Target: Sulfotransferase
Amino acid sequence: SQGEVLPQPNEFQKLLQSLPIRKSLLNTNLYLYDGSWIGESCLESLIDFQQNFQAQDTDIILVTTPKSGTTWLKALVFTITQRFQYKISDENHPLVTTNPHGLVPFFESYRSIAAGMPRLFATHISYTMLPESIKTSKCKIIYLCRNPRDTFVSMWYFGHQIMSKLDPSSQFPSPEECLEQFCEGVIHYGPFWEQILQYWKLSNEMPEKVLFLKYEELKGDIIAQCKKMADFMNCSFSSEEENDGVIKDIAKFCSFEHLSNLEVNNQTEERSVPRLDNGMFFRKGEIGDWKNLITTSMAEKLDQFVEQKLQGSGLKL
Ligand code: A3P
Model:
């Protein structure tokens, strides 16, 4: 008798079979691809993006560690670059009706076209993984990271919330278990320190190509950081704009208080990233909230671990 003809695995399935695999904290598959742990649902569109994306010299690419303030950075860069097109007010600005993730698309979650000029895109991937045209064109990269304690705690709450929505019968691992896996590097886009170090070094070697920012610095002096971003993107604020309070208006408009209170970011049904409610990107927006989840000794252990990884780089987080 003739045997059943099984469907042949396609190229992507063959690739998946060849990659190291681990479980994420959400109990989904992570694959080690090009040195980073990538979720199965992102990998196919990411490879498509790597192979087909053509950067333009005017593009601006926002690269961030997950939970480091991506949503905030998207809002700020959108508002700064589009300020001549959209007046900063609650009347008709796109940010009032659209979550920042709907205005600045992620490369890895779906193929989408950025609206407006300059084109703005975001991603969480390492420099190694970026398509060649981003590296060879004059397009610019803004990188954002955050203190690992707060990044970790933000990630824990985010994961916990996703798990309770997607799979209420499952238990999200404890902070202790999560911290272990965080430091092992087996988290989405991990190991986080390798990515941070990579962009840190590049920002020192090619300051006109990569701007390196920290969440804490944005919180510390948002006006100075907005100016720095605008200068870097070749759309500096004029002294007239500065005197008119435009930078202050932008900072206020993109603040946690303003954005998180908008209806579009409050209604749980609104979604700009597949499966994730807009409101999930706004939790507390504070520095030091780690204190409410992990012990001082866990935090100190994490610090020691990170210090060791960053040793000799000149970077402090
Ligand atoms: P917390 O969980 O500590 O509150 P990402 O956008 O990369 O997913 O990061 C989410 C983190 O940024 C969350 O931190 C969220 O509350 C905070 N955040 C979101 N919008 C912000 C804003 N406009 N200003 C400051 N922090 C913001």
User: Anything to note?
Assistant: The pocket of adenosine-3'-5'-diphosphate is lined by residues 64, 66-72, 150, 154, 157, 254-256, 259, 281-285, 289 (CB under 6 Å). The chain is about 45% helix and 10% strand. The mean pLDDT is 93. The longest helix spans residues 148-166.
